[in-house]
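User: I'm new to structure prediction. If I give you an amino acid sequence, what do you actually give back? Let's try with this one:
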Amino acid sequence: MTAKEKEWITRLQMIQLQSENPYLEDYYYQEYYRRIEAKMAEEELGLRSKREPPKLTTPYITKTDAYTPVVHIEGSLGQVAVSTCYSPRRAIGAVHAVQAQGLPEMFMALLEVEETERMKTTVVSEAEEGRLMEKTQRKVDHIYSQLDSGGEFLPFLVVSKGKKLLARLLPFLKQDSAFKILRVVTSNLPTLMSRDTEEALPVLYPSLRNVIGGLTFSQLIRVLKDLTSSESLSTYECLTLTCQNKFGLSLLYALLSHGEKLLSSSVPLEPSIGDFETWTDTIFQVAGQLSQCSLVEPLLLPSNLLTLFCRYLDKQTVHQLKSNME
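Assistant: Good question. You get back a string of structure tokens that encode the predicted 3D arrangement of the chain. For your 326 residues, that looks like this:
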């Protein structure tokens, strides 16, 4: 260690010993030495040949309310942003593109949105309800604009608090805004799954499942393309990773389930060119993965998935899928 590093460690330790009220904060140490000193003071000066007991000596350090840390990670979310003796947790989960100090402000604004939403149940007039809705929308738009200031939600999705914020915000967003966040998730799913060390991704599932429930058939196809394609991974590799992750598999199931609901409904699908071909190819690719790899237990297993596979696959393959999925 260098002399500077040794000096920093000593300073770090000494800061913890500073006290403006030692009897309150370190009573037993102070009282112990008070009694020893009182006893020794009673002895005659000439008889004090015994060596005084060792006593911890704290070098004088000017009392400081703040001190410059050695470690500082700009824009960290979900963890302590600086390393200090008072906050010695590991500084991880740093994302340079995100300003950490803005996240608490967004959470406070979201709390106000949720409180306003609860107040709607107590209003007695349409005019008052309209004012509350307008107030809610303004705050939601403000939060969304802050999240989308860089044109990308990924920095918030790789940290735990960012996931929680988006999960709570999604129900208040307009469909096109929520659809954009869904596509960010599916487009970056391998990255999100690999960096989800705290297994916080499932917090997004209920909100994203509701977003999926409002997709048109063409929107659904776009999301499935995002999920099964990657610049660095093949479709096979994307699906393999997805099927081995609780959140990934649950999201894939939700997309397929919604597709089956759309196909079974009487509402016109209004597909774009190539949508049905992409849908059919995806079904066969997913079926191949589900029948081959070891599956994790999903957050939710939709009841209409086997009905979907029965549209395209033979009975033997469907039976094998059923056995593997359950």
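You can read the tokens as a compact description of the fold. Here is one thing that stands out. Residues 203-325 form one domain.
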